[in-house]
Amino acid sequence: MLNRFIYLTGWKEWGKQELPFKTKFTVGTKTKMLYVLKNLKENDMATEQERIDYWSSYMDEMLEFQNRVMPHPVEECGDPLLPIPDAMEGIEVLYSDTKLAGTFERIYYIRSGILDDLVAIAREMNERGWILKIEDAYRSMEMQTALVGNPGIFEQIVEKCKWESGGETPSVDLVSRRLRLLVANCGKFGTHTQGCAVDISVYNRNDGSEVWRGKPYLHMSELTPMESPFISADDLANRLAISELVESHGFIRYPAEFWHYNKGDVMHRQLTGSSEPGIYGSVHFNPETGETVPYDDILAPLVPDEQLAILLEAAMNK
């Protein structure tokens, strides 16, 4: 059955017109879109170069967005980090049992000021016949740094950069820019290190199957952006239905990843058009004492370019 085709004749500026099927990216300086036409073949008709062009253009717009985030002020409010499971009594919730970067036990804590909102999300999902699975929440600096240099994730990003570069070895600068977008290589963009973000999956209560969003958690490709034009209509509908529910409780989707939601930080402010300061900055956290200490420098890269160059050479020599 023919159902959908991405009409890829190049990016088009999008104004106020309403079209029956569209996917749009709206946080950059330009709004770009692809027409999605009904009753034609699935999007596998898109050429490799069209996929590369989409990915590169999207990543560049996200970089513009992060450049606007950079000067946005942060006024740390001091909300403590509280354990998520303790607040979920009587609600069916799942948690990832994998170790972050293959080493670290996950820390299922979030800021007290948004914990009730997360509980309300989980409860409403149960009422809808879904189960919220929290894949990740707060990350320490050590965890985030390990994630940036994790071979599995780093090599995925290098492969995408190589793909963008026509099969040639990508520059350290390109890898650095993509890491900043996709793994938050500095505290200013690290909403997990700020304790105000969750990565989630969603499951059906009746049979335990995943509410499928096109790819599994942490998949990295042109299908990863929340409204990627290269996923099926059903997968897009699932992503948007989940986002609508989550956003009704004040969180906001991160456009570049279909699993990530955050609230109260500078990216949340920029994505919602607010000029108010972000109230959460990156903090060191001791779960045993509850003590939090702000980062000395939220703009410093966790893994500097000199180290990235070494990691890049190792990845290319494999």
List the main descriptive attributes of the protein structure presented here:
318 residues, alpha+beta, Muramoyl-pentapeptide Carboxypeptidase, domain 2, five-stranded mixed sheet, three-stranded antiparallel sheet, 9 helices, 12 strands
**Number of helical regions:** 9
Q: Radius of gyration, rounded?
A: 19 Å
Number of strands: 12
Overall 3D geometry?
globular
Helix content: 25-40%
Question: How would you write the strand order of the largest sheet?
Answer: 5-7-8-10-9
What is the fold-level CATH name, i.e. the topology? Muramoyl-pentapeptide Carboxypeptidase, domain 2
Structural class: alpha+beta
Listing every helix as H and every strand as E from the N terminus to the C terminus, the arrangement reads: EEEHEHEEHEHHHEHEEHEEH
Number of domains: 1
The first-to-last residue Cα distance is 42 Å
Low-confidence residue ranges: 1-42
Main β-sheet description: 5 strands, mixed
CATH top level is Alpha Beta
Average pLDDT metric: 87
CATH architecture, by name, is: 2-Layer Sandwich
Residue share in β-strands: 15-25%
